[in-house]
Amino acid sequence: MSLLIIVGHVKDGIELGREYALPWVIHQFIAQHHGTTLVEYFYHAARQRAERDEDASQVSETEFRYPGPKPQTPEAAIVMICDVCESLVRSIEEPTPGRIESAVHNIVMKRLLDSQFSECDLTLRDLSIVEETLVRTLVGIHHGRISYPTRNTSSPDVLSQPA
């Protein structure tokens, strides 16, 4: 059921795009932003369940992929990369610059090796530029911050350090 909800968000997005009369090009971005990628979490969970249960049927990777299509334009491919990287970096416990750079690179390589960019004119040079730019942006968003002092409510002119 969870897999259907995850995969279904693309169809739901397209329906919302129609409802709100978004331009057709936006509908295409919505349809292509996951391409035919594997919904890995549920695929691996199903494989583990099948390994434990001798009577279970073999798990097909095809059942755990988005329906596509793959990105048809470089812009749609960039949206794909940005969407997944932003989500992944939010899940990193301590998003240091090195961890962010590694995560972005791994995602780009995973999508490349999965042939997700095979139907658009995105070059390796383009991918490198996207990767570098995305890393800089995500590091800027997730950089460490100092704790700001809070105003002491008993004395409005006195700042106190957080506990």
Written overview of the protein:
The chain has 163 residues and is mostly helical. It contains six helices and two strands, in the order ααααααββ. The protein has helices at residues 2-19, 24-32, 40-52, 74-91, 97-113, 124-141; strands at 150-151, 159-160. It has a two-stranded antiparallel ribbon with strand order 1-2. The protein is extended and about 65 Å long. 17% of the residues are buried. The mean pLDDT is 91.
Low-confidence stretches: none
Which percent range describes the beta-strand content? Answer: under 5%
Q: Which percent range fits the helix content?
A: 55-70%
How much is the average pLDDT? 91
The global form is extended
Short structural summary:
With 163 residues, the protein is mainly α.
